[in-house]
Write a structure and sequence with these properties.
- There is one protein chain.
- By secondary structure, the chain is mainly alpha-helical.
- It is built from three helices and two strands; from the N terminus they run ααβαβ.
- It has a two-stranded parallel ribbon.
- Strand 1, helix 3 and strand 2 form a beta-alpha-beta unit.
Length: about 80
Amino acid sequence: MTNVKKAIEILKERSLFIADINLDAQISYKLAIDALEKEIPKISGCDICNDTSNSRYYKNNKYRYCPYCGQKLEWSED
């Protein structure tokens, strides 16, 4: 398990305990989890934007992140 995945797991567990106590903390945990999930590379286009139409352009231009939402992209070497 990568450090990012482990951090997401920990944040999700801890967010369950504060869900009823503090709305601001709950929102903060959700934002942190969403940001960390974008650091897990997606292969062949952006799953968040559902943008696979530009995946060849992104790959050819060595995009590391989706220009629309910030999702990290990973390209396998063909």
